[in-house]
């Protein structure tokens, strides 16, 4: 009798990110992520979108990553929300080198120009370095910066390293 094949495991897949990706595969759209009336789940939605981007990076689906990046920008702009420390740490722990998602986070923090955000947590060293480099030459035009992420552009660098992980983020 022939043994059944073992499933291929690509690392730790976040169930919500996988659900969003499957919706994308079958419909070509990102599902609507419902906010509560008081926006108390805005941070959770941000994290779901970040994990979805990382999943798209892992499976090398640039169209999905672009759609998720646009959804992140729309989510942030429509609710005046912000990607917090846990999101920055998640992204920097699971991507390498320059990529559009890292660039968006740096732009958001640079536009915010608040050093109190950085005092509270030990942000990844690469993120702080990226902030310093960006801050030297940055002119704040919020609409122009966010609009750039909604344009039809390709991802700069694909990450080709191992598993997606939440490493010590506590989520």
Strand % is under 5%
Helix/strand/pairing class, anyone? Answer: mainly alpha
Mean pLDDT comes to 75
Order of H and E elements: HHHHHHHH
By DSSP, the count of extended strands is 0
**Gross geometry:** globular
Q: What distance separates the N and C termini?
A: 43 Å
Low-confidence stretches: 155-171
Notes on the protein architecture:
- The longest helix is centred in the middle third of the chain and has 18 residues.
- This protein has one domain.
- With 171 residues, the protein is mainly α.
- The termini are far apart.
- Helix content is 57%, strand content 0%.
Summarize the model shown.
With 171 residues, the chain is mostly helical.
Q: Which descriptors apply to this entry?
A:
single chain; globular; 171 residues; disordered C terminus
Question: What topology does this entry show?
Answer:
Blueprint: H1 15-27, H2 42-58, H3 62-79, H4 85-94, H5 100-112, H6 115-119, H7 125-136, H8 142-150
Helix pairs in contact: 1-2, 2-3, 2-4, 5-7, 5-8
């Amino acid at each position: 009798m022939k043994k059944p094949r073992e499933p291929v495991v690509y690392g730790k897949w976040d169930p919500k990110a996988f659900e969003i990706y499957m919706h994308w595969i079958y419909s070509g759209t990102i599902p609507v992520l419902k906010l509560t009336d008081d926006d108390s789940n805005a941070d959770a939605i941000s994290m779901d979108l970040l994990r979805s981007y990382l999943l798209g990076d892992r499976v090398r689906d640039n169209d999905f990553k672009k759609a998720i990046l646009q959804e992140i920008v729309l989510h942030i702009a429509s609710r005046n929300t912000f990607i917090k420390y846990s999101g920055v740490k998640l992204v920097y722990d699971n991507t390498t080198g320059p990529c559009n998602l890292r660039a968006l986070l740096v732009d958001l923090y640079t536009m915010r120009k608040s050093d109190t955000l950085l005092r509270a947590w030990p942000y990844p060293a690469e993120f702080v370095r990226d902030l310093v480099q960006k801050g030297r030459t940055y002119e704040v035009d919020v609409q122009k910066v966010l609009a750039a992420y909604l344009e039809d552009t390709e991802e700069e660098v694909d990450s080709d390293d191992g598993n997606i992980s939440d490493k010590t983020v506590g989520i």
